[in-house]
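Recap from last week: sequence in, structure out.
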Amino acid sequence: MHARVCVFQPESDLTIIQLEKRLRQFVETMTKEKQERLKLMKSRMKVDQQLCDALNAIPYYIPTGSVPTDQQLDELEQHIRDLESEQVHVNSTGFVRILEKFRKYFGIFQGLEKSGK
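Predicted structure tokens:
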């Protein structure tokens, strides 16, 4: 997967000064887009790693040193949503198990209390 590549195609009637200006603007725009993608990837990868650590799951992989594509960022976001959903499920089933154990032990203590009186 490669990032969408914009090709600089200047108008043919530009002077060399105008061409240089347009080229600089294009480079500036592409540099900003790169920085935004990398910043977004970094923040999403941090969330992904935290969820993976908590769930003992494998993090989503984007090659180091590359600028992520829109598709990779979307897939990473979907991976995070899937992990969050799994975490909700694990937490809710874990709570149910704890509640069941509590009720069991509470019943045992009540039985011991009644037998001790």
